[in-house]
Every structure is written in structure tokens, then in C-alpha cells.
Amino acid sequence: MVKQSELGSDFVRLLASILDESKLSEIEYEADGVRIRVAREKTIVSNQAPQTVHIAPAIPETKEQPSTTINTENAIKSPIVGTAYRSASPGDPFFVDVGKTVKEGDTLLIIEAMKVMNPLKSTRSGVVKKILVEDGAPVEYGEILMIIE
User: Fold this and answer.
1) Gap between the Cα atoms of 73 and 71, Å rounded
2) Which residue, 48, 60, 19, is CA-closest to 36?
3) What's the pLDDT score for residue 135?
4) What is the rounded end-to-end Cα distance, in angstroms, of the chain?
5) What is the pLDDT of residue 74?
6) Residue limits of CATH 2.40.50.100 in the chain
7) Phi, psi for residue 65 in degrees, rounded to 5
């Protein structure tokens, strides 16, 4: 946890480096009433005269909705921003699969953040019901990664 007195330009630079390494468009940190948001701004340079552009509203994706809702009470969430890996190294078997029984403290996956491999341990014993993250996929802070019941 970062103390409010430590939130300065070095901390903002740290957030910016996480943003660059994770290829995210923005990152936000909030604690004790202090909120810092670092976002990537895309600038387009053109020699042409300004033109009016009309953008049609986006058509929402039509995905088939699952018949059951996710019980967030049993969710394992990402504690950090990074890249999730389901095995210790490429080609190794996954730490867990759907249907596997796990004990509290078992490694579920690894999240790489700033070139540091952080094991994500199970906070409860139970059976892995859903895995909501792909191997090698970027993850956000608080994102639901697995359901263990």
C-alpha cells in the first residue's frame, strides 16, 4: 500500500511504466481519498484542413448470455494489473483446470507485473468452477479470474 505522502511524481512515473509495459490505455490508483489516473492520449497529426466527421453509434455485440450468473462471492480477483499465466512456463501443465479441487494456498496462476512473477494463491478450498482468463492475457486490478466453490 502506498502512503498518501509517497504519492508524487515518482509514483506517477511508476504507474506510467506499468501502463507502457502492459499496453493498457489507462491505469488508475485510488486510496484514502486520493485518486491518480494515468492515460495514454492518441494524437493524430494531419496537414489537411479540419473536417467534420460523423461517427455512427456503435452496435453492441450480441453475445449469448450465460444461463447462470457469476457468484462474485466465490470469485478469485486479480490483485494487480499484469499478464496472467496459467502455468509456470510455456509447455508446462496448467496449475488448475475446471473441476480440479484446490486447497487454500494452492497456486492458481501467475501474474507478471513489471517483469516480476507474482503467484496468485487460492483464498479458499473448493472446486474450480470457471476460469475466466486465458493464458497470457492481460488482466486488470479487481478483474474476476476464477470461480471456486
Assistant:
1) 5
2) 19
3) 93
4) 29
5) 84
6) 72-148
7) -80, 135
Report which of 77, 4, 69, 56 is spatially closest to residue 35, judged by C-alpha positions.
4
Q: Indicate the burial class of 146 (C-beta count within 10 angstroms; 0-12, 13-18, 19 or more).
A: buried
Task: Report yes or no: 95 and 108 within 8 Å, Cβ to Cβ.
Answer: yes
User: Among residues 118, 127, 28, which one has the least CA distance to residue 78?
Assistant: 118
Q: Which residue has the cell 486465458?
A: 134
Q: How many CB atoms lie within 10 A of CB 15?
A: 18
> Given 2.40.50.100, 2.60.40.420, 2.40.110.10, 3.40.50.460, which CATH number is that of 72-148?
2.40.50.100
Query: What's the rounded Cα separation, in Å, for the pair 135 and 41?
Result: 28
Outline where DSSP puts E strands in 7-49: 26-31, 34-39
If DSSP codes are grouped into helix, strand and coil, which group holds residue 111? strand
Is the pLDDT assigned to residue 13 strictly greater than 60?
Answer: yes
